[in-house]
Design goal:
With 141 residues, the chain is of the alpha+beta class. Helices cover 65% and strands 13% of the residues.
């Protein structure tokens, strides 16, 4: 499907920009988790799993990978000694900043290539597609 090709191309461009910024150890799956984390503060794994639409069990390996690679850190929950909280490590904060810069650069470049009129029509068409999907109950909750 055309949207899958667009997504793949955007993802490849995004990961290439992150690699040029020094973040060479990210897989697409790991990179996809980072925007779900707040820049400030911490979150329980179960709450993060809900936010990204995964089970806690499915998410736990990715969290551990990100901790091992220095992007996240786990700390004790001050309100529940049995629980751990996940938060961005300094390297994760740097990745977040690089990711925002990469997205802005990609958006600016693409806007320059397709022009504002085409970009506006594309956004309108994508909103219509999302509305149709929602009306047919095909969107994840």
């Amino acid at each position: 499907m055309l949207l899958s090709q667009v997504r793949a191309a955007l993802q490849a461009g995004f990961l290439a920009r992150l690699a040029r910024a020094g973040f060479i150890d990210l897989t697409p799956a790991l990179a996809a988790l980072m925007p779900a984390l707040d820049a400030e503060g911490s979150i329980r794994a179960a709450d993060l799993a809900k936010r990204v639409g995964l089970t806690k069990q499915a998410l736990s390996q990715s969290i551990q990978e990100l901790v091992t690679r220095g992007y996240l850190e786990q700390v004790r929950d001050p309100h529940d000694a049995r629980a751990k909280l996940i938060r961005l490590a300094p390297r994760g904060s740097a990745l977040r900043a690089a990711g925002l810069a990469a997205k802005a650069e990609m958006a600016e470049r693409l806007l320059g290539q397709i022009g504002p009129g085409t970009a506006a029509r594309l956004a309108e068409d994508l909103r219509a597609l999302l509305a149709a999907l929602a009306a047919n109950h095909t969107m994840p909750r």
